[in-house]
């Protein structure tokens, strides 16, 4: 059995069955008779059956052909209807999975709102979220492994669309009774010990790049891959945790850390949305992108 099928062969099969001859099928399909004969030969080889036997001037279907023709015709009719029926402008007809590339904190920020909106507008659409490393994001979008990604600004190829959707100022988190809580100066911040959230092998990050640009360096005592682990460490130690504001909101819902303004000047983190050119006009994905952008820009919605 062949692993790949040429749908055009089944169009030919249906035409021969309907017309009863190769010549009539060729005329109906606006093809040459040799082209129809060649397609039938390929189908016979593929299905290991003659499919039609000549009786006088007519091509009479075999039992195997009679067995498969209802499914073939039904599939061709469904495909034709799907292509020719204008889109109604609603999302309720979609039945598919939207694949998102999100960090865990964006999952917390977005997924409950997306689920509610899908239940209201596209109940047969499901969501799959996964964390894609920044260095793999472009290829994952190009291969269709994910439909939409949200992360910090990164270089992207020409076939990847991107749009800045928000900026995240940084805040400082520590345990409520931290000894530095009442005297968080720049010097105290730089000389303190810190816990860093990073899922990347490289330790280059926005905060330390900004500190280095101003001639400062902080001591990273621990690196965690997940924000909740880093928050738990900060809650039970003297380590300081510096995170974007959205992270801080999510963290403090789970762990009652104290929030403080940054004692050093760190530029806000630009957050971008990414998708492949091929999905730019996809009605469902355009709507999901709009929902995601609105949710991050207006967290209370």
From TrEMBL:
Gene3D superfamilies: Periplasmic binding protein-like II, Winged helix-like DNA-binding domain superfamily/Winged helix DNA-binding domain. Belongs to the LysR transcriptional regulatory family. The keyword Phosphoprotein does not apply. Keywords: DNA-binding, Transcription, Transcription regulation. This is LysR family transcriptional regulator. SUPFAM superfamilies: Periplasmic binding protein-like II, Winged helix' DNA-binding domain. Residues 5-62 form the HTH lysR-type domain. Pfam families: HTH_1, LysR_substrate. The keyword Disulfide bond does not apply. CDD domains: PBP2_Nitroaromatics_like (cd08417).
